[in-house]
Amino acid sequence: MIIKAAELAKELTTPKLPGDPLIITPLPDLKDLAESGAASLDIRLGCWFLSCRTIHAGLLDVYEERENAPNEAKIAKSHYVPFGESFVLHPGAFVLGVSLEWIRLPGNRAAYVIGRSSWGRHGLIIATATGVHPGFTGCLTLEMTNVGEVPITVKPGTQICQLFVHQAGSASDESRDFVNPSEFIGRRKPILGTIELDDWARKLSRRI
Amino acid sequence: MNLLPLVDSAKQRIESVLEEIDRLKQSDFPYPHPREALGLLEAYFMERLSALTKAEKGTASPAAARACGASLQDLVRCLPYLGFILRSTNVRNAFEGYSPLLRLACKVIGPGTRLVVSSEWEYSPYLIRGMEYLPGFVLIGLPASESSNPLLLPAAGHELGHAFWQQHNMAQAYSDQIKSFVVKRVLGERWKDYVLCFPRSQKTDLTDDSLFAPTTLILTYSWALCQAEEIFCDVFGLRIFGQSFLHSLAYLIFPGSSDYRSPLYPTLSTRVSYLKKASAEWGINVPEGFTPPSFASETVSTPPTTMFLLSLADEATAHVAPSLIALADKQVSERGISQVDRDSVLALCQDFRVRLAPPTRRFSLPEICNAGWTCALEPNLWAKVKQLKPGDKNRVLKDLMWKSMEVSEVLERIERPL
Known about the structure:
Shape of chain B: flat
Number of helices of chain B: 14
Strand content of chain A: 25-35%
Helix content of chain B: 55-70%
Low-confidence stretches of chain B: none
Oligomer: heterodimer
CATH superfamily of chain A: Deoxyuridine triphosphatase (dUTPase)
Shape of chain A: globular
Distance between the termini of chain A: 45 Å
Structural class of chain B: mainly alpha
Mean pLDDT of chain B: 91
Helix content of chain A: 10-25%
CATH class of chain A: Mainly Beta
Structural class of chain A: alpha+beta
CATH topology of chain A: Deoxyuridine 5'-Triphosphate Nucleotidohydrolase, Chain A
Radius of gyration of chain B: 25 Å
Mean pLDDT of chain A: 89
Number of domains of chain A: 1
Largest sheet of chain A: 6 strands, antiparallel
């Protein structure tokens, strides 16, 4: 069940369980949110970006043994764009951005990050399938790519995508459960992260 | 084969630095002030180049030689500034700290203050002096290895103290007091020691008139003045950042060095004692253990004359220390910086500790630093938070602190009219 914006506004003001609140910081305009009639809330673009160092990055081989894999600093470069300045995303370019908002989901909520159609119509695709798990806390890494034909300028602080918040478990179920620790939790900058392979994937990817 | 003519080589040197400035201007500047600094330096060297071009006709003249020498001196002095400005753009810097620090600098130094903060390859935080090339600029260097550590931002309070000391020419104000005290002390209780070091001296040689200061005591005067400045900067930083200043200072310099005592600084135990004194006066709780470990012996085998001059400098510093503490308090208060509000710090700690999120309202940089240190010292912080691994505590706390600074900046901008 998607939680409507009016309900989210209430939850942001008076959390049902103070020890496990829904948090969006900086707080959106709650009056606007309550009156929007929407089923999502807008998320803004933050100041940090991570792009690929194409001249250093070779083939992205997730099957490489972890100790041989290049670290993030070798294959990705950080950029800081202060408020008032722009980041230009060229056609075909892919970059990781970050949400301006620090988001914390309670143990009975999950969310999806979806692009905004207004940006999508101009070619900017954001976070095609980003699930946010119960108990997540931190800024969201946003995968951004320009599939259009002209460069697109984005500025920190702009509403860039939307967050659909869901009930995790049945509405009557008040129990709360939290996602396991991960490298994505509690961060303010975008992170490339590692693609984890489970035992099945490791075994099946070996040559016989 | 003849040398390249003086003026030609001087012009080429200036042209090279101008080319370098042009390249640096293409860097990604997170804030406008480093770019403005480059613009000022560029204009300065353009003028130099133009002066050299005029001097070209009289290559062999003394005036031309003087112009070449002056331009060389400018290069020697300014090249480190260019490096500093370049390093200020490095993304290892946590740029979220810039705006709150600038706001603080504007309050302390003046509304038009220009600030450049860089992560430097020197461990001790420092302020770049000799700003005749960059008037109105404050250049603060923080250690590169700690550039992502907001817990050490209070150390910048000490550097702001240096900027204040310079801007208000406090050295001049304290110089006479120090000289007068030293001369009286030597003519009184320390006369026997003085004669042992300078056997042919007569009491009539000594005068506290600064114009006729005895050369024997010049080192004492300059050491005492430097030490006084350090004490002022310590208590200045303490007054702005409260207890968090003590934590960051201890992190950066404890246990001190056991093998060398710089005469330009008071001993570590002396610095600590004045910080404790000021803390007591201002109601700041001193953290337990804020005492240099006993193994940090600061006595070394120094020539007796040097020991004597240094001990006089220490005494002179001790003489002016109470007024330095009072001055720091007065100046910071007059600039509208109130003491760190404990209730705000506690509220922010709750945000970090319980909500695991930055606050929804604005907090000042000192409040954020104090809340950060309070949480950092809690051994069981987030121990029961299932989403975090125990080893993530420091990383997450630092990100929360930087994000809190950014949120405060966002709210400050939102409150301004369009």
